[in-house]
Amino acid sequence: MKKKKLFKKKNVDAAVEQNENTPLYQYDIRPTLWDVIAPDGITINSEDTGIIKQTLGERIYFRPFFIPRDGYPRKMQTNWLYSLTASGEVDVLIDIHKVNRSDAVRALQKQQTIFQSSLYFQLRRGNQDQIHDLRTKIADTDLLMQEIQFNENDMFHVAVLGLIFGKSEDQLNRLSEAIEDELSGMFFKVSTTWSRVKKGFLSALPFGKNHIHDSVRNLDRRALSTFAPFISGSGRYYGGVPIGVNKITGQLEFINSFGNEDYKPPNYNMGIFGISGSGKSLAMKLKIARELVAANIRAAIIDPEGEFRTLTKRLGGINLDISEESNIVINPLAINYTDIPLDDEDEELEWLKESDDKEIIEKNGRKFIRFVPIREKQNEILDFFDIIVRGKNGEEAGLTVFERNYLEKALRYIFDEVLGITSHPRSLFVDGVEERDGVLIQSNVRKPEPTISDVYNYLVKEYGEEPKAERLIAAIRPFLRDGSKPIFDGQTNLGRGVTQALHQARLVNFNIKQMEEGFLRPIAYHVILNYLWEHFIKNIEIATEKKLLYADEFWQFIDQDQTVSFFEKVARRCRKRNAGLVYASQDFLRILNNEKARGVLQNTHTFFFLEQNKIDLEQIKKNFNLTEGEIDKLFTNPEKGEGILRVGKSSVWIRTNPSDEEMIFVESNEAVLQDFLKRKQMQRSGGF
Description:
Layout: H1 12-18, H2 33-37, E1 41-44, E2 50-53, E3 59-66, H3 80-85, E4 90-99, H4 101-125, H5 128-149, E5 155-166, H6 169-184, E6 191-192, H7 197-204, E7 217-220, H8 221-225, E8 241-246, E9 252-255, E10 270-273, H9 280-294, E11 298-303, H10 309-314, E12 318-321, E13 338-341, E14 359-363, E15 366-371, H11 374-390, H12 401-418, E16 429-430, E17 433-436, E18 439-442, E19 445-446, H13 452-463, H14 470-476, E20 507-511, H15 520-537, E21 547-551, H16 561-573, E22 579-585, H17 588-592, H18 595-602, E23 606-609, H19 614-624, H20 628-635, E24 642-647, E25 650-655, H21 660-666, H22 670-684
Parallel strand pairs: 10-22, 10-23, 11-20, 11-21, 12-20, 21-22
Antiparallel strand pairs: 1-2, 2-3, 3-5, 3-6, 4-5, 5-7, 8-9, 8-25, 13-15, 14-15, 16-19, 17-18, 23-24, 24-25
């Protein structure tokens, strides 16, 4: 077969020979753009392939292709183009031309006439398959024509062309067959530019001219949106653990809470929203279990409904069942030192004055400022007393200026005069010997923690006769060790064998289900959140390890300003402690409409939206820029665990995928679990 040259270069030497008297320097021999980017040679090899010569010893085979007019399915998925571009050495060019409205309507009317004539012919022949297809096309054409007339849609002339490359003819054929099979699975058809190799090659280059005129197809605005390469049903893979199955591709989607070298999220926080029964707790349980085992991530849980007790037990974690009758004490007045990197600008340093004592320590080759944030802690203690004086459901007013003044004097007296605690970390210890879990420890013995009883006794002694202190004293009285709500008074005690530092616990669950729902449970939630911030997230013993604090049913405590403010502080500052906050809520609007809670949303990088209340959908769409299609997935009866996973600006439609083995420890409803096990047993025995 005769070789054809696709490109011709001007021969400078030949030009020089034409006029031997002309000096060579008068000729412009600088390389042009085409001299730089063009290959050494291109030739047509057969009816549908060609060869590119790049080096002296290498040949690259290529095959131009295009999607013909009848090669498109009736409906296209958003990730179809990814299947083409990810197939190997493939270049793809999309040629798009918008059709003005009047021309579009005339073209559709002409097309409608052709369809009607074909329908009449097929009706006479009785070809039922063709009749149904033509009626569908007529209805689609009529609808598109109406939408264009009312400016609700547009029509475009679109062509998809490409080049497939291979190092050998066999490799080129294998790749071509693989692409054809991949696209045919999505009901696309591809064709070669048979006997038009040169035109196909030039059309697939970014020259802006399409020589394959039968590749042009009319598409509307919605169909064209599926061509955008950044609109894909697949999420990006950054490692991590599987979180669910992609509802479009059927592949596993992964979540990496802490990122990797190629991807570092601005924070490690995650919010999970959905109505009751949508699968929020199930998603949290899967995340806890898989990251604990496969990603070496520690977890601490605040569990208002007892949902995570079974999971913690079966994963070998520590369950702390907190109630008025338990012997557990979580002291809201307990104070600990904090460590901040010397080169950091953490806002906690704002509480540290130049005159305050501090200590410089070195750990793992890095220097830290160690100090006791005594002023910040005193403010947190005031917030605790503010909560308890408000009473059940916040029916009473908060602390008055007089009550706050009485408490500040009490705290200063206890910290300064009684315990001698200053900003220096050594002030928390005394030399001596103490018995801890049956073991004698010498030196560095902790001083007793200040307690509610200490504050109460001071108030009674100093202001017992003061009318303005009566309400405060009466509100504190039930929280004393001999009162009806004793779990916050005394030295912190999580039970035998559980260290207060929590650095030995990989999974710990604070179950507060048995607490009084309207009053005591919100207080416990606040105190535990504060405690985990001090002794889990800020724990220097596990400073370099990955940690996640899980807070379920956040919406129940949204009206408690002190808790929301502290929650926002944790969400904003935990990243510097190599930690993240994962929270779940039924009521999205209550969080969105709370000014302080919005700060939590603004400091959250990852969201998982499950089935939502109808009244919430518009606000979710508005605040998170979800598309109509994404909103539709949350509205049209999604299955349990099905929703939109939003990581930054990327969205993926998934459904959580607990295995049969995982269902045993993630299903907290015993009746549902037994029914599941019974059905699995019947399946294994061939019962159905």
